[in-house]
Structure to design on (360 residues):
């Protein structure tokens, strides 16, 4: 028979036991992750000191306790001192056998939204691979012929007409460069899965960015040093971080801006497939910048191939990010308002047997 303790620990949503004085008497692992605080530091504190709910909830909560009835609150912003508010659904009910005590669950809508987005992102990335191969095959060879013809013409024309042939050569070379990027997108190799330290990869990406495209930026490290090893291809993950850092750097003011690299452990985040199987994605990596934010017209399509908010942008960087993370059975999401854009990567931790191999 499954014990009450294992059931409590396995609940996938943040859950709190609230005593008759509105203090937290217990919290599950998902609740610790939601508050970004340990059970020891939470228990005994007034619940409304730790949870900020954007709704007049206290009176309805007291009425539910007094009448021993459940309370359901949908689409309300819930936050804490350690994390920004998320739109959530809350369920509150009397705890049977404990007069005056209540049990409260919080279901972040963000997690459901990230799940729904996934199928379309992965499908779009796979479609783009086929398009990449077709474009490279069908267009690169004719472009070489056009470039050669323009260079031959330039040998026997006036200086005024020479500007036109130079334009033809320059533009065809630009298109060839774009197609080479498309080919790179389509030819990405299968991930070489192994345990790796997320912070080592983030540090490599940070140093590379500061020496090149991000020299005008300030990059802050906000790491959870207790994070376990991730499981994936560190080189491909490095490519993901570099792409996101480059996007943030190019979107920033030319005088500079701030990028924050944040890592933390999220107990409650699991990826579930349509067949009912799934796995935990507890390792979270956030790339946060203070730039202008994503344009409204592309915000919902940013992971689609060839969607770009920059002039002359290829629109392949974020599509590549989504493909790599999808190939790692991970998750990527984005939130953006002017002055704050957050890309969040959710990754698997290394299995215990792989972790053991790494340490032998």
């Amino acid at each position: 028979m499954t014990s009450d303790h294992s059931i409590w620990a396995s609940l996938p949503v943040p859950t709190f036991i609230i005593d008759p004085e509105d203090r937290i008497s217990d919290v599950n692992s998902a609740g610790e992750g939601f508050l970004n605080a340990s059970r020891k530091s939470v228990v005994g504190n007034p619940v409304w000191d730790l949870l900020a709910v954007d709704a007049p909830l206290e009176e309805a909560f007291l009425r539910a306790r007094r009448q021993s009835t459940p309370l359901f609150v949908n689409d309300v912003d819930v936050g804490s001192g350690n994390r920004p508010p998320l739109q959530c659904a809350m369920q509150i009910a009397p705890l049977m056998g404990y007069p005056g005590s209540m049990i409260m669950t919080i279901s972040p809508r963000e997690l459901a939204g990230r799940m729904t987005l996934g199928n379309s992102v992965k499908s779009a990335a796979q479609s783009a691979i086929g398009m990449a191969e077709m474009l490279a095959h069908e267009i690169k060879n004719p472009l070489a012929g056009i470039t050669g013809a323009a260079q031959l013409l330039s040998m026997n024309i006036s200086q005024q007409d020479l500007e036109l042939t130079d334009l033809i050569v320059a533009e065809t070379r630009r298109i060839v460069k774009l197609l080479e990027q498309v080919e790179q997108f389509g030819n990405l190799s299968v991930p070489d899965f192994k345990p790796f330290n997320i912070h080592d990869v983030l540090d490599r990406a940070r140093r590379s960015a500061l020496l090149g495209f991000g020299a005008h930026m300030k990059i802050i490290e906000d790491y959870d040093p207790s994070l376990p090893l991730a499981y994936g291809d560190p080189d491909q993950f490095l490519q993901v971080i570099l792409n996101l850092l480059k996007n943030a750097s190019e979107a920033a003011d030319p005088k500079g801006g701030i990028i924050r690299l944040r890592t933390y452990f999220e107990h409650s985040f699991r990826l579930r497939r349509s067949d009912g199987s799934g796995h935990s994605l507890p390792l979270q990596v956030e790339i946060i910048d203070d730039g202008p934010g994503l344009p409204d017209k592309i915000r919902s399509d940013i992971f689609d191939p060839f969607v770009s908010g920059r002039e002359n942008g290829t629109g392949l960087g974020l599509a590549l990010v989504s493909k790599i993370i999808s190939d790692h059975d991970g998750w990527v999401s984005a939130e953006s308002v002017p002055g704050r854009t957050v890309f969040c990567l959710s990754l698997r931790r290394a299995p215990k047997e792989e972790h053991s191999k790494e340490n032998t």
In short: Residues 112-119 have pLDDT under 50 and may be disordered. The chain has eleven helices and 15 strands.
